[in-house]
Amino acid sequence: MLWAFETGGAIEAAGVGWHESVVVASTDGRVYFVGPDGKLRHKWEASAAIRVTPLVEGDSLYFGADDPFFFCLDLRARKLRWRMRVGARVLSTPRADGNRVYFTASNTVLYALNKRGGDIDWWRILPSRSPFSPEIAGEKILAASASPVLVGLELRTGQETGRYDAGREVRANPSWVPPAILLALYDPGSGQGSLVRLEKLVKVELSASTPQPAAVGAEVIFTASPVGFYLPKYEFYIRRDSGTAVTQEASAKNSWTWFPESEGKVTIGVRVSDARETREAEMSFDVAKSK
What we know:
This protein folds into three domains: 1-85, Lipocalin; 94-109 and 121-200, Thrombin, subunit H, CATH 2.40.10; 203-288, Sandwich (Immunoglobulin-like). 0% of the residues lie in helices and 54% in strands. The protein has no helices and 28 strands. It has strands at 16-18, 21-25, 30-34, 40-45, 55-57, 60-64, 69-74, 79-85, 95-96, 100-104, 109-114, 120-125, 135-137, 140-144, 149-154, 160-165, 169-170, 175-177, 180-187, 192-199, 203-208, 214-215, 220-227, 233-240, 243-251, 255-258, 264-273, 278-288. The strands form seven sheets. A five-stranded mixed beta sheet has the order 22-28-27-24-25, with no helix packed on it. Strands 1-2-3-4 form a four-stranded antiparallel beta sheet, with no helix packed on it. Strands 5-6-7-8 form a four-stranded antiparallel beta sheet, with no helix packed on it. The protein starts with 15 loop residues before the first strand and ends with a strand.
C-alpha cells in the first residue's frame, strides 16, 4: 500500500480520476480531491450523502446526492456550476452526450438535464425503479430497471422508440457494443444467470387490401408495415415489362392507393428509409378483366 486517505463517512462510490487527482465522494456529503501522494488538495461540501459514482467529463463533475439534488461542479475552479432539484434520490452513475446528462432516480424516472444550466429537457417514467446507468446507443438511450423490460428512448426528445421484455430480471447496466446490446439477466426460479445479445431487427412487409386477382378499375390499397425504423419515409413504385416507375414519392404516408387500368401481372414495391436504414419489399400482383 502506498497511502490511505480517510473521509468523514463511508465511501460507497468508486473514485474517479481527473488530471493528477482522484475525486472521491463520501456519505459525509463531501467531494474530496486527493493528490497522487494521498494528500488532500481540496474538498467541496454537498448537501447530503453521496453514494453513486460521479461522472467526469472534461472539467465537469456530475453527481447526485441522497437529497433530491443533482450537481455539476467545475473541477478546475473547484466550485459549483449549477444544481437542479429533481425530486428524488439519484440512483445511477450519470451518462452524458454533447448536450445533456442522463440518470435514473428513486421515483422510477429517467432524467435528461441540459448541461449548460441543469434545466430538465425531458423526463420519462420507467417500468420500475432503476439502479442501473442508462446507456447511450447512437441517437438513442437504453434504460433497464428492476423489471424485465429494457426501454429505448430518443436522445433529443425522450420519445420511446421500442422496448424488449426479457422475461427475467435485469441485473446490470445494458451495454451497447455496436451493432448489438448486451444484457445480463437472472432467473430467480432456476437461480441461473445469462448474458443475452440483442440485435436490431429491421424489415418491412407489404400487403394489399384486395385479394388477387383484382378487377380492372377496382381500388387497391397497398400498405407498408415496417419494423426497426425511426420516422421512416415510404416510396412506392410499380414494375412492368416496360420498366419501373415511382408511383408515390417518399413521404411519411405508409400506403398507396391504386386503380389498375389494364389486366396483367405487375410488381408493386415500397422502399422504406430513415436516417440510418433502408429496406425494400415487393409483391407480385394480378389484375383481371372486370366481370
